[in-house]
Amino acid sequence: MRRRRSSADPAARFAQAQPRPCALPQCRAHGLYPAPRSRTQFKPYLWFCLEHVRVYNAGWDFYAGMSAEQIEREIRRDTVWRRPSWRLGEHKLLTTEDTFGLFGEAYSGNKDAAANWGLSPEAAEALARFSLAPPVTLVEIKARYKQLVKEHHPDAHGGDRAAEERLKTINLAYGTLVRFFGGDLRV
């Protein structure tokens, strides 16, 4: 025998289970509707009643404070679900860059360009390890960090010691960049 689903509003059922006050201090209604805190910090959510979440959403701009170039870059990245993409026929199957020194070659990145942006030698080296070039945002650094961790994590390589050393290098470079750019270490 199949169970029938309740036709009650899911938000109303949730409010009955765990009543939460609206995020506006003067409001006495229940906060049934989640809203992100900022562009870079979605969770923990702010919880509003229906009236106040409408006001909050009407005044919230994801692209506030971004230049036209940055907005265009974000839109393009979102159209491919933040996955790397390239034009057909432009695949780079073999890279000549040895960012992590796996083959014993020293990285020969353009350190003069990094110095022009006011980067310390450590930050320039960390950007080179991430294969990023200035100007770069903390959001781009975090995205690249996540990508490199997934790619070089020892668990993905059967506990390989070389992968563990690459991950340590990635973590050190990430810490350097976050300290230099004044961000939050949480990913």
In short:
With 187 residues, the chain is mainly alpha-helical. 43% of the residues lie in helices and 3% in strands.
Question: Can you offer a commentary on this structure?
Answer:
By secondary structure, this protein is mainly alpha-helical. It has 2 domains: 10-59, no CATH class; 68-181, Helix Hairpins (Orthogonal Bundle), CATH 1.10.287. 43% of the residues lie in helices and 3% in strands. It has helices spanning 10-17, 50-59, 68-79, 111-116, 121-129, 138-152, 161-181; strands at 33-35, 46-48. The longest helix is centred in the C-terminal third of the chain and has 21 residues, at 161-181. Residues 90-96 and 105-110 have low confidence and may be disordered.
How many domains? The number is: 2
Number of helical stretches of at least 4 residues: 7
Highest-level CATH class of the largest domain: Mainly Alpha
- The SS-based structural class is mainly alpha
Give me some keywords for this one.
single chain, 187 residues, mainly alpha, 2 domains, 7 helices, 43% helix, extended
Task: Note the topology.
Elements: H1 10-17, E1 33-35, E2 46-48, H2 50-59, H3 68-79, H4 111-116, H5 121-129, H6 138-152, H7 161-181
Helix pairs in contact: 5-7, 6-7
